[in-house]
Amino acid sequence: MSYLPAPEQLPADLFGKRDQDRAVRVLDAVASARLRWTTLINRKELAPRIDDRRLAMVVTGRRIEAHDQDVISLRLEAPDGGELPVWRPGAHLDLELPSGRLRQYSLCGDPADTRAYRVAVRRIPDGGGGSLEVHDALPVGSRLMVRGPRNAFPFAVPGHGSSAVRLHFIAGGIGITPILPMARLAMRLGIDWSMVYTGRNRDAIPFLHEIETFGDRVTVRTDDEHGLPDAATLLTGVDTDTAVYCCGPVPMTTTVTAAVREMRGVELHSERFSPPPIVNGQPFEIEFASTGEVVEVAADRSALDTILDSRPDRPYSCRQGFCRTCKVRVLSGAPDHRETVLTAADHEAGDMLVCVSRSQGGRLVLDL
């Protein structure tokens, strides 16, 4: 595996990319409202740029990245070995799997390697089937299409998009994937940074061999040796003028968010693994226009989950309201739009992202 030399100083655009990526994910509505007074990045103010290009790729390498063998990485290259679109730390790819499933995985390689992308996937037996397909149906030599790269977890280097003077990374398990490129860039640029990396046990932690090259900047804590980490442990050394980047399970990100709420002068940039909690959910009905079937969406369930009960082949991906895969046209009714990516014109046309959006009351007739 060969890599091009990394830049020793920041280029004019930070990563040499012509167009600036913008954030599209938001924390759940409650956290966003309660954190607005802090220096938490307000992603709602940043309109996303959706990149729908599709690239043909071939799997040129597979590697086990955790001793328990539940995490593998894939090296993806263009069929002709040519250069690939550049990307920034925090970016991801949408993989079009052989079954037709569309799944998102963070890029965890080196942006300086312009001829290959690397993604890592943890096997989840009781998930939606995407991780099992990656593990079992994508051997070396497999061809597939990808979309992107896209960046929903943007990395702002201190002095270049961030007012912070130091960085603190928090990763839980497979949440290390978007954090790895950020840490590498911080190291290359001589930025002051630290990291807390958590997992069930050392056998379950992916990329441990790479993390150990960072030396004492990184504290590895496992549940079997130290117990579940609290906020003080996860935020060790964090003080005013620090930007925190956190990716991992919902309990961890929730703990960090609550703690940062009480810390003035601290930025929080976070990516979660699962859909945001439903806030102030009210039950409503969905009617499938093609059949007249009516289903009820419970107050604590998403429209997407309810639709999948009847239409399990319905496409979806992020479940967080930014990738647009689950977009549906509303033929009748008043949707309660809870995403940040559709434009006013999209809303006027009747488009709705059923993974997060709901009804303002009453029945929605969907073009399904």
Describe the structure.
- This protein has 368 residues and is an alpha/beta fold.
- The chain is built from nine helices and 20 strands.
- It is globular, with a radius of gyration of 21 Å.
Secondary structure elements and pairings:
Blueprint: H1 29-35, E1 54-64, E2 71-77, E3 91-96, E4 102-106, E5 117-122, H2 130-137, E6 143-151, E7 157-158, E8 161-162, E9 166-172, H3 176-188, E10 193-199, H4 208-211, E11 218-222, H5 223-226, H6 231-234, E12 242-248, H7 250-260, E13 266-272, E14 284-288, E15 294-297, H8 303-310, E16 327-332, E17 335-336, H9 344-349, E18 351-353, E19 358-359, E20 363-366
Low-confidence stretches: 1-50
Strand content: 25-35%
Radius of gyration: 21 Å
Helix tally equals 9
- The structure class reads alpha/beta
Question: Could you list some keywords that capture this structure?
Answer:
six-stranded antiparallel beta sheet, disordered N terminus, 20 strands, 368 residues, alpha/beta, five-stranded parallel beta sheet, 18% helix, 9 helices
